[in-house]
Amino acid sequence: MDRRAFLVALPAIAVALGPRLHAAPFQDVEFIRAWERAQRLRPRSLTSRTRIAPPSEPGTPLIVTGRLYDRDGRSPAPGITVFAYQTDAQGHYDVPANGPHSWRLKGWALTDADGGFEFTSIRPAPYPRRTEPAHIHLYIEGPRLQRRSAGILFDDDPLVTREERATSTNAGDFGSVLAVRTHEGVQRVSYKLRITDEGVF
Question: What is the pTM of this model?
Fold first, then answer.
């Protein structure tokens, strides 16, 4: 099953996705257990550039270039762990046999001195037979920074609504509906993310 509960549980993404999604409490036991299982797989050493999907993964290549800023929106936030997961090119997080809370395509990056990070992956697909737009889940945490959620939408996705686009536009440089550029078959998006009190869990 493709778990809408994950999406509706994320306040930061719920803001970006508008009134269709109302955030469920982050105390969801299954989600927390899934989070803890995933974090046990985190590599001991992290760099600012990494992969979510392996090179052999079917789908359109995608590179997400990000930069994390502190609360003032100007100062870079170095040394912060960014965890990302997404669906595959068919809109699935994993094969059904692996259970309802399994994230096959996932990766971790550590922001560099300028707050920068980069994920190489494939373009995620929307959930099958659903109306939510395709997205990538992001979570940040670090020294003296409680974990919190964010997320990415794509401006060429017809499932992104007018309200979602307006919310992103109102966020200015920190909007989550990202322009997609394509060069030699590789899609690229650039994401500026600011630490806020939204999405804390």
Answer: 0.86
